[in-house]
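anyone else get weird line breaks when pasting these?? whatever heres mine. first is seq + tokens for prot A
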Amino acid sequence: MKSLVVAILNDQELAEYVGKKGSTNGVAFYNRKLPDATITALYPTDFEDKPYAAAQAMLMADVLVISTRNIDSVFGESLVGAALLGKDILLTDDNDVTKMVSNIGAMTVNTIGRDELLESIGSHEKTADGNGVRIVIDRAFPVKGIGTVLLGIVRSGVLRKHGTLFSSGGKEISVRSIQSQDVDIDSAEPGTRVGISVKGVESDDIDKGEILSDVPIKRVSDVKAMITISPAVKDAALGSGDYVFVSGFSVTNARIKSVDGGHLITLEKPLPVSGGEPFLLLRRGKPRIFAAGKTVV
């Protein structure tokens, strides 16, 4: 059975329709098991004040769902971010937004009725996210009698019970047990929302955005990248100001300068980032989500 992650960016009712609400940490998680697919829906709980959470949801998702019920600034920012990432987009048919979509840039869009949402999400073909085992963590906490429990999403490879992983802080971690959809499982494939009982690390050592992997991914302070600014953002230019860098569930302030035909991004807080990682950049003015790229180092 395939597992899919979907971002529902601007309509909580749609998120509640898709699944049962689980944990919330800037992004609310909704879970649903279909006959041929397991769905994890990510809904940013406060797009207006925490646009980085919407960027996190977009980056983690296989499919992006944008409601056309309200044509407002959040709708516009959702379109800009979706176009920058080039992911499949499902638009609801509440309003005709054909002209707006054509002005944003090239993207694959399907318009559906609300009652078609689950079928449309479930029919999406899952693609590989990369090589090796990687789990992006969004929450860590201690449980009495069990130890450290981590919540996250498998991005690539297969997470296995009793396997060994590494944190970006250099800790060697043993996987004691795995749960998904409140069921104990022996392994989890990409797209699966998991709860992992582990030993070898304390919950205080794991931040939101931590990447567990079969090969250690170190935290870095400088990232080389090629950055693309959305053509829909007419007044944007990469200058010496402060930006917000979002990769997976990680977020930090950043400064950018041009180097060797590309860009050097200096992160305020070191993050676990490796080559080929997609990211979004945010600025202060609207649309705040305005640029994207992939890391080189």
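and prot B, same format (seq, then tokens)
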Amino acid sequence: MARIAPPVAEMRVAVRRALTGLPTDALVLVACSGGADSLALAATVAFVAPRLGLRAGLVTVDHRLQDGSGDRAAAVAGWARDAGLAPVEVEAVTVAGRPGGPEAAAREARYTALAEVARRHDAAAVLVGHTRDDQAETVLLALARGAGIKGLAGMRERRPLPGSEDVLLMRPLLEIGREQTHKACVALGLQAWSDPHNADPAYARSRVRADALPALVAALGQRVVGNLARTAGLLAADAAALDGLARTALTEAGGADGGALRVRSLSGLDPAIRSRVLHLWARELGAPGTALSQRHVSALDALVVDWHGQGSAYLPGGIAVRRSGDALAVVTTDTEVDQIG
């Protein structure tokens, strides 16, 4: 029997672990750009999924940001069909005009497309090829932004797919290094595409990849990459525990489904829990998560612990919250709403 190359074996173990437990005959889709990480993942899923009684397909998103992008997407789709993946979809998206910088706009367009394809084919999960190196880069970027525990927790191994909450978004390669995915491609005879955007210094992640992370490795050793990724995993577990406590406290304070919050139930909470309760409540009220910041949560917190008769706190989405006696509630009077703008 031919010996399986170690990087290929490692990826198969990681993907098998991720897919185990999905319903028999469920469809999983691989998001594949044609780069080494996602291409190696797609080849691995094509091998592992049928052996677990699952169906495997592929989606390649054409961002239309470079000349020839359509041809590359078609080439990825052709390879996927030859590899036995089905369905195979090419989704062209428009990035211009979306909110945020170019990286954020491309990401939003990509996940919107993935959600649409997943719904169209009733997929159980979408798999993406983020690696341990990507996780380390994410932690460094979060540190540079001054992010809290959720930002430093990096990317989760599995979570609901944005835009299609009943579909799982899986990242089975978060414990696999980028070097291993490249070696897996070589071992499997796969021709990966190198995206020039990954080396473009106009993008913050590209600068971290080319300069910041290599400088840390040079100063502290190669283990720093794994240690950063491991830190993200530890913080993700802590964040999940704190969020669980906050959800319980939110219900006990009466704020589930956007109901009024009882101040006496909040004032004695640890600040770390109370801020999460207020953040969850703001989301329940309809404040968009992308616009909700610590500044807004602090304004709500002041109504609890620094109450001296001040007016309403204002949240994104035109939501005003006022304290009246022992309760925090959304302002509904026409006068107050007119003042929101």
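btw re prot B: The longest helix spans residues 223-252. The beta strands are 27-31, 55-62, 88-92, 125-127, 158-161, 164-170, 261-262, 313-315, 319-324, 327-330.
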